[in-house]
Amino acid sequence: MTNVYSCSDPAQRATGFAEAKSAFARSGLVVIPTDTVYGLATDAFDPAGVRRLLRAKGRGRTMPIPVLIGSRDTLRALAINVSPEALELAEAFWPGGLTLICRQQPSLRWDLGDSRGTVALRIPDHKDALDLLADNGPLAVSSANQTGQAAPSTIDSARDMLGESVDVYLDAGSTPGPEPSTIIDVTGESLVVVREGVISLERLREVVAKVESADT
Hints:
The protein is an alpha/beta fold. It has one domain (about 5-215): DHBP synthase (Alpha-Beta Complex), CATH 3.90.870.10. The protein is about 30% helix and about 20% strand. The chain has helices spanning about 10-25, 45-55, 70-80, 85-95, 125-135, 155-160, 200-205, and strands at about 5, 30, 40-45, 65-70, 80, 100-105, 120, 140-145, 170, 180-185, 190-195, 210-215. Strands 1, 2, 3, 4, 5, 6, 7, 8, 9, 10, 11 and 12 form a 12-stranded mixed β-sheet that branches. The longest helix is centred in the first third of the chain and has 16 residues, at about 10-25.
């Protein structure tokens, strides 16, 4: 498997990261490890790459692609009107399994799907992912599976589903998966959990008491 690189081998990791950077520059796709499951990544600012990602997954534009970032400073660069309470949650749970749906900066020229002016942002708690983000900037990342299939926690599972549609596979062994990140919509007056994942509602409310569940 010539396009699979082991992150546990320093030489392979360096080569794989270089190949990933080259792939992102040409609208390519890279499977990367995260702190939940393996993700399918492309340059967040490359609409052609995002279209390729959606095609590889068999996914439509109605489910916009989330964006992984490397620092809280990037949140301020990409999002507007982020409340103090949302920033408190980011301070408490980033890096980690928290995704914040924010109002995006109106000047941004990207196309992540039918996002209606919002963007879902997260900092992953995984060294390889963070190093990739530091090297390449924000990445549009969805789970590395065909839509309707289980999200993969091994590189072999990802490759079985996505095959040659992916340019580079970065193998960091088994990921913690399969429980996904917790998603909170912070675009309105209230903070609303739209998907409870690895971070429970109770833990969120220990930081910000007035986090609402979508069921309430």
